[in-house]
Amino acid sequence: MLIHLKGNHDVFMEDALHSESIYQFWIDPLLGGQETLDSYGGNLDAVPASHWEFLASAKLYHELEDFICVHGGVDAELPLDQQSSELLLNHRFNNAAAHISGKTVVCGHTRQTDGIPKIQDNTLCIDTNVFDGGFLTAFDTETATIYQVDGLNQKKSYPLDQLL
After folding, report:
1. What SS3 class is residue 42?
2. Pairing relationship of beta strands 67-70 and 104-107 according to DSSP bridges
3. What CA dihedral angle connects 53, 25, 132 and 149, to 10 degrees?
4. Is residue 91 within 8 Å of 107, Cβ to Cβ?
5. Tens of pLDDT along 103-148?
6. Bridge partners, residue 120, by sequence
7. Does the predicted TM-score (pTM) go above 0.85?
8. Contacts of residue 116, Cβ cutoff 8 Å, sequence gap at least 6
9. Could you tell me if 145 and 160 are in contact, meaning their C-beta atoms sit under 8 angstroms apart?
């Protein structure tokens, strides 16, 4: 099963549709908004309705039996239904702490520039710097396997316990 999660840049794109100031913020070269617009032909009006629907349907988190999947992170002391969207979208991995549920939190949002996912206090960060030439990383929660591919289509996979 594939679940798509909402990230902070998805929110920027959605909000840019309704706010000129957020639009200007989003198209900054460091945020990737202009590149996103260029891929659609240069403006938000060219984005198909199905793409807006996809963004709107993205979840802020997804909870499994042993894992919590989220873009940013969680407050370790709060149940999931009490988390703020700001935290779920923007929390940084370097402040990770084990969640009260005992589940492993799988997150992104904090680039690991060495290309290696990091695990700390029952939190696994799989943002491996694809933005700046690193790897795109996925984690299979059913097999506890990490999959990576880079811009040259070099692929690798390994079990999570290799990081421990």
Report:
1. coil
2. parallel
3. 0
4. yes
5. 999 999 999 999 999 999 899 999 999 988 999 999 999 999 999 9
6. 123
7. yes
8. 128, 163
9. yes
C-alpha to C-alpha distance for 52 and 90, rounded to whole angstroms = 21
**Among residues 81, 60, 82, 79, which one has the least CA distance to residue 71?**
60
Residue 107 to residue 152: CA distance in whole angstroms = 24
DSSP state, residue 8: H
Q: Which of 60, 27, 59, 4 is nearest to 12 (CA)?
A: 27
Kindly provide the residue ranges of all beta strands, DSSP E only, lying in 17-132, ordered along the sequence. Answer: 61-63, 67-70, 104-107, 118-120, 123-125
Using a CB cutoff of 8 Å and minimum separation of 24, what contacts does 14-19 make?
14/52, 14/55, 14/56, 16/44, 17/44, 17/52
Is residue 135 within 8 Å of 129, Cβ to Cβ? yes
- Between CA 91 and CA 75, with CA 69 as vertex, the angle to 5 degrees is 40
Pairing of strands 123-125, 136-140: unpaired
Inter-residue contact 92 to 110 (CB < 8 Å): yes
Contact 115, 102 (CB under 8 A): no
Question: How many Cβ atoms are within 10 Å of 3's Cβ, its own excluded?
Answer: 11
